[in-house]
Amino acid sequence: MSAFRLPDLGEGLVEAEIVQWHVSPGDHVVVDQPLVSVETAKAVVELPSPQAGRIASTLGKVGDVVRVGDILVEYSEGGEIEKAGIVGDLPQSAIKASPAVRAKAAALSLDLSRVKGTGPDGTITLQDLEAQQAGGQAENLVRLTPARRSMASNMSRAHAEVVPATVTEEADVSAWPATEDVTLKLIGAIVSALQAHPALGAWYDAKAQTLRLHQTINLGIAHDTPEGLFVPVLRDAGSRSAAELRRDLDGMKRKIADRTIGAADMLGATFTLSNFGTIAGLHAELVLMPPQVAILGSGRIVERPLLYQGKVAPGRVMPLSLTFDHRALTGGEAARFLREVVEFLQSGKSSRHG
Question: What separation, in Å, do the N-terminal and C-terminal C-alpha atoms of the chain show?
């Protein structure tokens, strides 16, 4: 009997979640026929069969997390189909429960793997199901998607390594036309400020206690999705036209939506923009991912009375939050950078550069 194992999916990925089986035990498959779809931290990947043959068993159910090297499919050889079918039942039989208990658990949407059995040899009883339901634990447990597990790991790393500090400001954007491309305007402001204060776009090496300055500006653009946070990188933003930047921004959204975005698309950012104001919020203490030393957040644009030459008039302001790594930058450096951003946004300068 031969087996198909979860292959190395590249980009440092070591695990995946089963999202759909395309074959069942007893099916005959040909080379390159899809076997199973799995979700990594970045994309849904369809895995093809490396050989022709008959499926003896599929190991793992939808929602299971498997690691590189784990067996996913066993192929029958000779007359071993029936024997292999028994092997395919082992993952389920590892949970000791009667058919009645399994049916009751399915009706209650309870995950038997999370129920502690009190019967003989750990067998799960109907009373165990009732106790689990009364505790309300199963209903409140939500499995993190691969993208969210990756995000959780990154947030833990940021919390452990960075010494964050945040400065805030507001930009008067009353003169902006209704058709203003807010994201491109913010990119233009960041590029202008980084050209004047390149240390904000550096990488900090804590062990060597050095700042690595960069010749190009690679902007991470945060995207909120139901699956988790994605931060693809806009390459060489300082020398691109507005049309080129908008094309790439739209391409990012499409790749995130259809889950074709790869890990390589999210590496190498020298500065990050989070336009969380498109959802809600004014100011924020943002999470900064090392080795970057700064991230800018733009809040919700609000209307309020403003004072112009001694007279009160209606206006519009954009709240801004700059979180920086205080190990690498001073408060003065951060404040001067933020002032440059505000002056650009208020100057009426075009977001086109390069």
Answer: 61
Last residue of a domain, one of 140, 173, 208: 140
How far apart are the C-alpha atoms of 238 and 127, rounded to whole Å? Answer: 65
Three-state DSSP at 25 gives coil
In the block, residue with structure tokens 């990488």: 203
Measured CA to CA, the distance from residue 254 to residue 246 in angstroms comes to 12
CA nearest 237: which of 276, 205, 268?
Answer: 268
Q: Are residues 69 and 165 in the same domain?
A: no
Q: Quick check: 274 and 319 in contact, CB under 8 A?
A: no
Q: How many domains does the chain have?
A: 3
Query: Are 151 and 229 a contacting pair, CB within 8 Å?
Result: yes
What are 124-159's pLDDT values in tens digits? 887 787 777 766 544 556 677 778 888 888 899 999
218 within 8 A of 270, measured Cβ to Cβ: yes
Radius of gyration of the chain (CA): 27
Contacts of 203 (CB under 8 A, 6+ apart): 211, 212, 214, 270, 291, 292, 293
Residues 122 and 7 in one domain: no
Structural domain ending residue among the three candidates 107, 140, 173: 140
At 214, the pLDDT band (50, 70, 90 cuts) reads very high
Cβ(47)–Cβ(35) below 8 Å = yes
The mean pLDDT value for 7-31 works out to 85
Full residue range of the structural domain in which residue 305 is found? 146-347
